[in-house]
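Morning!

This is the sequence you dropped in the shared folder:
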Amino acid sequence: MELMKALGGSEKFTLKILVPESKCGGNVDMVSIVIGKGGFMIKQLQSRTRTSIYIESYKASESAWSCAQITGEMRDIAEAVKLIYKIIEGKSSFAAFNAKVKAAVLPYLQILG
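The structure's back. Tokens below.
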């Protein structure tokens, strides 16, 4: 019931998701694609979804992932997550990776609407 109230309310939440640094060890920097040249893509995402998105890099720890922190109303966060993973999916040619991302994320997005 609390989730349903959150979905209908204007309360702000923060969700952290993982964004791959590259496509399965390839040379395409997925974080840079999500951010876009001069921050264009991430600004568009923030504007379209009415969220605040901050991507923290873990390159110093040699991780293959970065953490994206998304703040906003629950429905807006769900839309931002969907769009971010659509961008990643569109640039990744690895079907197995895409399937893993969908399997891990989609159940939560379906709950959020």
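Headline: The CA atoms of residues 24 and 43 lie 26 Å apart.

More detail when I'm at my desk.
O.
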